[in-house]
Design a protein that fits this description.
Chain lengths: 290, 339
């Protein structure tokens, strides 16, 4: 029982990286119609930035949790203004290809600058060790990651449902033409939303820094699993992205515990099943065309 | 939203083939292509020449889906790589002449494409790309984990090159090129037949207007799945020849970057133009070869930048641009004649 709970927390902690990043992917897709292939690279940049900030400025994790997403927001704005915006009116496949090219460039640049071996990262003292919860011993950091990312997801959800900005973003996601017709300047929100989505990927990277090997390649497989996550959750759906993120984390953790050879494969089997049974994803709506 | 300063991409079906109404030009092009293919190993290091032709068929196979069916597969490394492994395994364990091994690899790729295609075609557009990518990653992990069979990260070493005991073909890559070329040319001919057949016209109609194709009574999903399997088979032919030519199979052949590279070749050459795959593969391989020989590390930096630039500024691709110019010139001439 205790082992099961430990795997569950481990899975939910890993799932919170997927949930946060998938949330960013879903928001970007909702408002811009762009599937951001570079999301894994942005996650990697978040982790690398965290390690570099600790190494050069001795910036602790607490500050990185704040500073790195802000930096990534700025980077996302630059990427959107410089590259992504020119293709927004075309078939979304072009932006998928563009961000694929961007991924290759970013990964290679990090590889050239910081090498292929991982960057070191040590946990702040307060998050090391384990806690004993009614007989179940859990790593303290995994619990922290879980609680923190759930808090962020709830916060984003509150912003989306309770504020005017959230209402505009949701309107722009669901019915862009109608939102425009009602006098909402949808275009004004495109750049900040892209930056926001990139910041979420960066935040997932910060959280992953003490938990995963920090290498230039760390985002590659992550991005592909993210795609599986949003396909499972339903690409347009924000709730779906978060739920599927945690679900995939659980599948991965239990898979690694009980069938390590098939852990990675299970996720894609899950995706295939969802497509067969509910093509639009667990929380998605049917595609408008075809 | 700011107005795009870049010209809009051509509507997918608007381009008319250079040789559409000009059979003589088509034959001249085909003859020139054949001469170029035969002369290539005289000018380029023969293994590199083999890479060019194999990747050209790979790009053409991807273009059957991307350019003629409107489906961007981001997972064709699964078929390329799995055929390479199966070809290598057959050649290693049974010692059959290499064309037999390649055929086995291609058949395996088509069998693998059946379930993947069946599931993937249920989603279209951007979803199709993501789903095929995810499945290819699954195949990658299988290849990685099943190291007893595939050699895992070390790859499949020492794939023999057996050809009816003909010494020159088996040992010299120059002669091997001519032994393997007919397989790849057959693949290209098959691709040409597919896109110009009534079946191919249905694919184009699905690309241009899926609801209408469905309303006309075509089973759209079935057509897409068949196109997917055929494309995988041609990809398998190319991957098998590639494996034999190199004498080993690396895990990279299954990696997602391989899927991305071939899409780059297709887009660089020009989507929806079979010749574009040839041009794209030629440019890509010669550039990579040049960079590698000049000691430059980080080819992905160049590949990625080219990707970004082509998608931003040059969406017609090389062959697509040539074809477009030609078409514009013909229209202009025709209108002058009328005056």
């Amino acid at each position: 029982m205790s082992a099961v709970l430990q795997y569950a927390v481990q899975g939910l902690a890993a799932g919170s990286f997927y949930a946060l990043a998938a949330l960013g992917l879903a928001v970007i897709f909702g408002v811009l119609g762009v599937v951001n292939f570079a999301h894994g690279a942005f996650y990697m940049l978040g982790a690398v930035a965290t390690a570099v900030l600790l190494d050069t400025l001795d910036l602790p994790l607490w500050w990185s949790l704040l500073v790195v997403p802000v930096l990534m927001f700025g980077f996302g704005v630059v990427v959107e203004r410089l590259l992504v915006q020119w293709l927004l009116r075309l078939d979304p496949l072009y932006n998928l290809l563009l961000t694929f090219g961007l991924t290759l460039v970013l990964v290679e640049l990090v590889k050239q600058r910081y090498g292929v071996s991982g960057l070191p990262y040590r946990l702040p003292g307060g998050l090391r060790g384990r806690v004993d919860l009614a007989g179940v011993v859990l790593p303290r950091y995994q619990l922290f990651v879980l609680l923190f990312s759930v808090a962020v997801c709830v916060l984003v959800w509150l912003v989306m449902t309770r504020t005017r900005i959230g209402m505009i973003v949701r309107a722009a996601t669901e019915k862009p033409e109608l939102a425009r017709a009602l006098g909402i300047n949808v275009g004004r929100w495109v750049t900040p939303v892209f930056g926001f989505g990139v910041a979420l990927a960066g935040l997932a990277g910060v959280l992953a820094a003490p938990f995963r090997a920090i290498t230039a390649e760390m985002g590659n497989n992550f991005a592909i699993i993210l795609f599986a996550v949003v396909v499972i959750g339903g690409l347009g759906s924000i709730v779906g992205a978060v739920v599927a993120g945690f679900l995939v984390g659980l599948v991965e953790a239990f898979g690694q515990a009980y069938a390590p050879t098939f852990a990675q494969i299970l996720i894609f089997v899950l995706m295939a099943l969802v497509i067969l049974i509910r093509p639009a994803g667990l929380f998605g709506r049917q595609e408008a065309t075809a | 939203m700011t107005q795009s300063v870049i010209t809009e991409a051509p509507p997918a079906g608007a381009d008319i083939p250079v040789a559409a109404n000009n059979p003589r030009l088509r034959w001249i092009l085909l003859a020139a292509g054949l001469v170029a293919a035969l002369a290539l190993p005289w000018f380029v290091y023969p293994p590199v020449a083999m890479d060019i032709v194999a990747l050209a068929l790979f790009a053409i196979a991807v273009d059957i889906l991307l350019g003629y069916t409107g489906l961007l597969s981001f997972g064709h490394a699964a078929f390329w790589g799995s055929s390479a492994y199966v070809t290598g395994l057959i050649a290693t364990h049974y010692g059959v002449p290499f064309p037999v091994a390649v055929a086995g690899g291609a058949v395996f790729a088509m069998i693998l494409a059946l379930p993947i295609g069946y599931v993937s075609v249920r989603r279209s557009g951007i979803y199709f790309a993501m789903v095929t990518l995810a499945f290819a990653q699954m195949v990658y992990f299988i290849g990685y984990q099943w190291s007893d069979l595939t050699g895992g990260e070390n790859g499949l070493q020492g794939v023999p090159r057996s050809f009816f005991g003909l010494e020159p073909v088996e040992t010299e890559s120059f002669y091997f090129y001519y032994a393997a070329l007919p397989i790849l040319l057959f693949g290209m001919w098959a691709a040409w037949r597919i896109v110009h057949s009534p079946f191919g016209r249905v694919l184009v109609s699905i690309r241009d207007n899926t609801p209408r194709a469905r309303a006309l009574g075509y089973d759209v999903d079935k057509y897409k799945a068949v196109a997917f399997v055929l494309s995988a088979g041609l990809t398998g032919l190319a991957g098998g020849v590639f494996a034999i030519s190199h004498g080993f199979v690396a895990l990279t052949e299954l990696h997602w970057t391989t899927s991305g590279d071939v899409v780059l070749m297709t887009v660089l050459g020009g989507i929806g133009t079979l010749w574009g795959g040839v041009v794209g593969a030629f440019l890509n391989v010669t550039l990579a070869d040049y960079l590698a020989s000049s000691g430059f590390h980080g080819i992905d930096l160049i590949t990625g930048s080219v990707f970004i630039l082509v998608v931003l500024l040059f969406r017609r691709g090389v062959w697509g641009t040539v074809r477009h110019r030609w078409h514009v010139r013909r229209l202009r001439r025709a209108s002058q004649r009328r005056r």
